Amino acid sequence: MSEELPVDPAIGNADKHQRPLAPSLRAGRQQRLPGIRHVIAVGSGKEGVGNSTVSVNLACALQQIGGRTGLVDADVLGPSITGMLGLSTGQPLEVTGHRKIIPADRHNLKVISRGMLTKNDDPAILRAPIVSTYQNMFMASVQWGNLDYLIVDLPPATGDTRLTLARNFSVSGAIIVTTPQDVSLEIARRALRMLEMVQVPLLGIVENMSTFTCRHCGQDTDVFRLGGGERMSRQLGVPFLGAIPLDADIVRSGDEGRPIVLEQPKSQAAEAYLAIARELAGRLDGGHSFEPLRALGGDRAAAQGAEDV
Amino acid sequence: MPNTDSQHGHHHPASGQPSGREQLPGIRHVIAVGSGKGGVGKSTVSVNLAYALQQIGGWIGLVDADIYGPTIPGMLGLPTGRPPEMTPDKQKMVPAERNNLKVISMGMLTGDDTPAILRGPMVSKYLRSFISDVQWGKLDYLILDLPPGTGDTQLTLAQSIPLSGAVIVTTPQDVSLKIARRGLRMFETVHVPILGIIENMSTFTCPHCGKATDIFRHGGGERMSRELGVPFLGAIPLDPEIVTCGDEGRPIVLDKPRSVAAEAYLAIATEIAGRLEGHPTAALKPFQWNWDTGEGEPAWVERGARPAGSRTTAIGFRRRDARTLSVLWEDGHQTDFDVRDLRLACRCAMCLEEMSGRPLLDPKSVRPDVTPRTITSVGHYAVQFTWNDGHSTGIYSFEHLRALDERGAVEVAEDV
Question: Residue A8's CB: how many other CB atoms inside 10 A?
Fold first, then answer.
């Protein structure tokens, strides 16, 4: 199996000069990205809970409430953000004179994704070190300009990404996306612990695919059960940021490249995202301290206290 | 797509396979269940498929190869954090057992809350040991619930284990399809035959008003199977019962065997078993064939036939001449049908009275120069003709065609 180069040949043109594109990272030292006020990682213990949908809509919501926002699709193996934002694919990335990648600009969001380079059907069979190289490059070698928020859409909990990200970059905090059901909660709990082990502060939990409202009769069904996100936030002593309903319009708008926060800003789903964005902005800039939660489970009161300061 | 020989990799391990492939004594078929992405319900499908295969008669094992987020212990109500017992000679792990299903999972080793921060090479090592260092005994099918995606783990697995085939799970929506397609390509790259596509989280039926909503859109799995020329195995509805049953450790196939979901699983299991016991490579890809121009003509691969093959599975069609359709059967038999005889043998409701079987079609009314315009495959069991006399409602099952041949009800010019 041939491995791709750490840097796509599509970036830049002279392969002699590919190396400078990869950020120079010193092991064990966190890098602060200049001009970026807050890096927010969005992750889940498992894929398919809507991590990318939440990342995209949250980025749009943060932008709607006035923040300059960027979005990194750190899911190098299975990038889906290009489709959700209707970005063109299979194009070489533009690079500045200083060998910085110029991000795509969509709905006033700055975006970088490996999906922009590849055609959608290209099989991404990449070895772990190459995946990490991409992720570091997407964080540090992109011309972001000044940003209030850089949302990093993490790939599913395969371990490697979070380790690299947390080791190499200064992250303001992480959000865990989960669905309401138990099986998924066990996994989200795992993800929480993983983030804590690498000392990333937790901003809170978003429950996605929550109650479904039938458009024919208006009645609710909890397709994926009920209230798991809130229960977990209580158990672990981290804030519950909100629940996003299970809604066919979110799915459709995502497939069509127009996130629901922008397409139907008055919808219940969009309002839920905007509320979460306001909450986050308040937490990040409202003078709260975001010490990593070292106490977990065993010392919920302390964790709760830290959050209530 | 892989060639005929690689379909049964473990029967013909020598030819063109990576040297790392191991033999698994006592295990007839290893089936990988994969998806391009996670959260499509792959583990739910694996568990229910395992029980469905058991129901139709077989000894089944299940490996939870999703080492990063093992969910199968939860779905089967198995204790976690308790390492599997060892055989007396300390050489092999003894799998857990639930309703006669043998199971091994990373969750048994790690417990619920321990994050599996593992790096690629370690994962591969664990996986191989999960398959070869377990006392499975005799199994008809070993289901491998793969970690989602197309990374290291999947690649290592697909290369190092003699897989009989892979099943791809997807949801109906586009984003997910693109990703499933990627998973499918990966299996093809490493020469693992694709048994087919299962669409999970399909149409939701509101329990209050009974009306359907396609929450995750509609029909993607079928569309993909058509586009990529791999079989569509079936759709599983989005159903809160499946979720609840899974969370409570009672898979729906066992808990509610009469439900729509359980029946869908049984149909899929039957299809998969048929493919594996039969000769999957010989199966025709879907076709729409223009009789006059020859466009879309299906395959005719005589080496796909074998003496023990199915009598009623057509594996090839070709136009012998303007008025003769030849059919190649999996058992090697060939039949030449006069196309007008086929028109006369139509069994649709307009040509045959449904209840009595009395013919409604007067042979004199069928013009002598009747020929097909198009011949289209219907699933993997039949073909449908559009005739130049305007008739197009008849579906000819392979069984019917073979019966026509053997009864001599049509004039056949045998070409054996």
Answer: 18
